[in-house]
Amino acid sequence: MKDRWQHHEIWNLFTSCLAKLSAVFCSSFSKVLRHLRQVTGPFLYKMWQSLLETAKNNPFGSPFHVAHCESSAEKDLVPGRTISAAAAVGEAGDSCEFGSRKYFALCGLGGILSCGITHTAIVPLDLVKCRIQVDPAKYKSVVNGFKVTIREDGTRGLAKGWAPTFYGYSMQGLFKFGLYEVFKVLYSDILGEENAYVWRTSLYLAASASAEFFADIALSPMEAAKVRIQTQPGFASTLRAAMPIIYKDEGLNGFYKGLVPLWMRQIPYTMMKFACFEKTIELLYKYVVPKPRNECTKAEQLVVTFAAGYIAGVFCAIVSHPADTVVSKLNQEKGSTALEAAKKLGMAGLWKGLAPRIVMIGTLTAAQWFIYDAVKVWLRLPRPPPPEMPESLKRKLAAKEQ
């Protein structure tokens, strides 16, 4: 009886935190929608508005207010220096200085909106993808997977796992994008201005890997609940019911036994996502976009962002797919290890569900970068242009050529 009471108290505390996170999302996103309507048109606006209404009606919802970034003159994170590969001088009208605490905090908010919205929007496809991975004999293809799911669970069955998806990936987005900006500035400072430019791809890879390491720790409990809800017949169908069951059966290990394969999936994915995006943006503005970035309108810049995000997403899906399959199988079977799950799947099994994942991750990554960049525009955050060679390095190269 005492243990049951303790579990009840833990759950009440947990749902209270989720309520606050959900309310922050709803309050902030309603403002973002007004800006996105002007950029994307009525169709996408209505789609996102419907998603917002669904989030507002979730069982954890409660009123909560969000603090806004105030215009202030704060000290640079790196006093007296300009980091060419990761920073730019703030433009007039920016609400925060680049590298300030408020800048990093609001980048984290952008990550919450970016990842929470997109992953929740594709829950039906993710559910079918997971079921193909863990039971390919029953779910033979994407179309067949949708048909079987609707026949057995009805249309509402396609939304199974939406709550852990929304909360888990919102928390992941907070750390993924927020800490990426932190580590990018930190590593640039360590390297110095010239080396930060020369080694900028390595800088993107290191910063994104560091951020994802922490992001996955936040994601893992919700990912465990999501996969069980979506793939285990007879298991709880809601997050509220699933969490106590997992804790009762497996303790805290049940929430984190998939953490290592999650790192194996997400860290390469995120490294590819950020590095490929940054390099693609640089190349698009250099060779494809017919005018410099500072002459493009905000809407045109967001189109370039979306295109670069989709290109990055295709590569992300391929790089991270085998580990994604192992995570799904591991969370489906109690007591299994990552190596055992991989052996059961075999080489061919590790690549099951790749086609829907390429579509899913490509669209997902593009939408995430679009929303993240749109939030930056809405909040008037500094948005550094693609990196340019520092003047000091240009002089050194010119001196060598003489």
Beginning-to-end CA distance, first to last residue: 83 Å
* Quaternary status: single chain
Which series of helices and strands comes N to C? HHHHHHHHHHHHHHH
Structural class: mainly alpha
Measured on Cα atoms, how large is the radius of gyration?
A: 22 Å
Strand content: under 5%
Main sheet attributes: strand count, strand direction, barrel closure: none
Overall mean pLDDT stands at 78
Q: How many individual helices? A: 15
Low-confidence stretches: 2-8, 54-90
Percent in helix: over 70%
Number of strands: 0
Spatial shape: elongated
What does it look like?
The chain has 402 residues and is an all-alpha fold. It is 74% helix and 0% strand. It has helices at residues 2-40, 42-56, 101-121, 123-134, 142-153, 162-191, 193-198, 200-231, 239-250, 253-256, 259-288, 298-332, 338-350, 354-378, 391-401. Helix 3 packs antiparallel against helix 6 (162-191), helix 4 crosses helix 5 (142-153) and helix 12 packs across helix 14. It is elongated, with a radius of gyration of 22 Å.
Keywords for this entry:
402 residues, mainly alpha, 74% helix, elongated, disordered N terminus
Brief synopsis:
The protein is about 75% helix and about 0% strand. It is built from 15 helices and no strands.
Please render the helix and strand layout as text:
Layout: H1 2-40, H2 42-56, H3 101-121, H4 123-134, H5 142-153, H6 162-191, H7 193-198, H8 200-231, H9 239-250, H10 253-256, H11 259-288, H12 298-332, H13 338-350, H14 354-378, H15 391-401
Helix pairs in contact: 1-2, 3-6, 3-14, 4-5, 4-12, 6-8, 8-9, 8-11, 11-12, 12-13, 12-14
